[in-house]
Amino acid sequence: xxxxxxxxxxxxxxxxxxxxxxxxxxxxxxxxxxxxxxxxxxxxxxxxxxxxxxxxxxxxxxxxxxxxxxxxxxxxxxxxxxxxxxxxxxxxxxxxxxxxxxxxxxxxxxxxxxxxxxxxxxxxxxxxxxxxxxxxxxxxxxxxxxxxxxxxxxxxxxxxxxxxxxxxxxxxxxxxxxxxxxxxxxxxxxxxxxxxxxxxxxxxxxxxxxxxxxxxxxxxxxxxxxxxxxxxxxxxxxxxxxxxxxxxxxxxxxxxxxxxx
Amino acid sequence: xxxxxxxxxxxxxxxxxxxxxxxxxxxxxxxxxxxxxxxxxxxxxxxxxxxxxxxxxxxxxxxxxxxxxxxxxxxxxxxxxxxxxxxxxxxxxxxxxxxxxxxxxxxxxxxxxxxxxxxxxxxxxxxxxxxxxxxxxxxxxxxxxxxxxx
Lengths: 261, 150
Hints:
The complex is a heterodimer.
Chain A: H1 2-34, H2 41-50, H3 55-80, H4 86-124, H5 127-133, H6 138-176, H7 181-191, H8 194-220, H9 231-260
Helix pairs in contact in A: 1-6, 1-8, 2-6, 3-4, 3-6, 4-6, 4-7, 4-8, 4-9, 6-8, 8-9
Chain B: H1 2-28, E1 38-45, E2 56-59, E3 62-73, E4 78-86, E5 96-101, E6 108-113, E7 126-127, E8 129-131, H2 136-147
Parallel strand pairs in B: 1-7, 2-6, 5-8
Antiparallel strand pairs in B: 1-4, 2-3, 3-4, 5-6
């Protein structure tokens, strides 16, 4: 009985510690980012890895999501005789909600997991300690480029996703169901305000920072995790953890941002 | 070569993202950045219930402007609506501005009907002939309550 209460307490304390470490890392990295030397090339390399390499995945999933939405919305709207609203429905749901969320989840799965695994392996093979011995700050050298790249790449990917999904919906509406082209495009332009685009942008920036931060922190601090999570097995469990945590963080903060803005 | 390739691909990615963003911001969400050339007119209404800034102004069913501002006049208990009319759309001195509804439950908009006077209104002037919003509930209640007595 007492043991189980102790266990609950331990879980609470360790998760609080983890949250604290994560945001501490953010502050440290941004502080170090302000100090010279400023190096741009590592950021470009991470943007290539997080952003450019995800482009195919994002385009394929964007078209698919757009087509699915077009199909489903058409079926629903047809019952009310409001097929003219197809463009508005697809555009609003993609730009406000699905674009940022789906893109972030894709980036978590593709890039986030490998960030955690990379940093975790560097930690257990003592490469991080080696950097510290050479007086190179691992925060600035390893984590800062990833954070900045995530912050920039996810919004850009979201925009590509939105654009592609809108045309997936257009394809279904206009070519499959023979909707007049003008009613789809006009519905879209009339329904979407700058406020909606801005909301999607704010969301994607926050998600981009959040997922790279969580994935970096999980990998970087894997040696501080619970005992027994060392070695190769530890890397695998920490990676799973990072993906789960950042997905939950994305979905929950999506709700929070939606409620606040 | 390797490095160049990587930078090139990253550059393509960034440009694609920015292009998609500007498409959304300007074409879809747009209109907010570039203001169409035109002039502003004022109009007083007794009741504009449901009309909002950004509402559409139509003449003969064609969009010819937007509602840019709505103010309340405490002296006369009226609404002062500032209308932004596109360039090239003449509004006569006795033109009628009426608050109408798109469909039965649609949004409120302002319908401009041409007048017969040769004189045109210019920037900052006031449309004197106005028709207020017609409230469906008022019409229905008038019909119900006056119907029995007649």
